[in-house]
UniProtKB/TrEMBL annotation:
Its EC number is 1.8.4.11. It catalyses: L-methionyl-[protein] + [thioredoxin]-disulfide + H2O = L-methionyl-(S)-S-oxide-[protein] + [thioredoxin]-dithiol; [thioredoxin]-disulfide + L-methionine + H2O = L-methionine (S)-S-oxide + [thioredoxin]-dithiol. It comes from the Bacteria. The active site is at residue 13. Residues 6-147 form the Peptide methionine sulphoxide reductase MsrA domain. Belongs to the MsrA Met sulfoxide reductase family. The lineage of its organism: Bacteria, Pseudomonadati, Pseudomonadota, Alphaproteobacteria, Hyphomicrobiales. One of its GO terms (cellular component) is cytoplasm. Has an important function as a repair enzyme for proteins that have been inactivated by oxidation. Catalyzes the reversible oxidation-reduction of methionine sulfoxide in proteins to methionine. This is Peptide methionine sulfoxide reductase MsrA. The keyword DNA-binding does not apply.
Length: 158
């Protein structure tokens, strides 16, 4: 098995985002919490995120970002479904320079075919404050869907 990598995404409600990413082949583990970082000009504050540990020999970082676009509304500023506020904004936290370059390139590609530009911030990852145990794998533990995040299988059906 190759070395695993981390990816961190803000896609609104972290419960639904975690359930969404856990279904993707090559995702080894997930955890939810509030990430902090900087986008070079401001400190965006604490954003609800899912942090994904993945095997890049099975699923690429680029594929995870492609699924990220499909798993939430990247066109909505500080709003996902019923939730609003800067804590539920669309964000990609990068862990490496390569991830930063990929995220910026894939956002530009997304914007080139989108009716409106993504509001998604690309932020240098600084840290993660884990949510408590009851919030980890919440959907799995409670047997119901939370938030308005689709299944990756339905996102990739064409």
């Amino acid at each position: 098995m190759s070395d695993t990598q981390q990816a961190t995404f803000g896609a609104g409600c972290f419960w639904g985002a975690e359930a969404y990413f856990r279904e993707i082949e090559g995702v080894i583990d997930t955890r939810v919490g509030h990430a902090t970082g900087t986008d070079g000009s401001t400190r965006p504050g604490r954003i609800e995120v899912v942090q994904v540990e993945f095997d890049p020999s099975v699923v690429s970082y680029a594929k995870l970002i492609d699924l990220f676009w499909l798993g939430h509304d990247p066109l909505s500023f500080d709003r996902q479904g019923e939730e609003s506020g800067e804590g539920v904004r669309s964000a990609i936290f990068f862990h490496t320079t390569e991830q930063e370059e990929a995220a910026k390139s894939l956002r530009a590609a997304f914007n080139s075919t989108s009716p409106s530009p993504a509001t998604t911030q690309i932020i240098q990852y600084e840290g993660l404050e884990l949510a408590d145990d009851k919030h980890q794998r919440y959907v799995e533990k409670n047997g119901h869907q939370a938030c308005s995040v689709p299944s990756p299988a339905s996102s990739t059906a064409s």
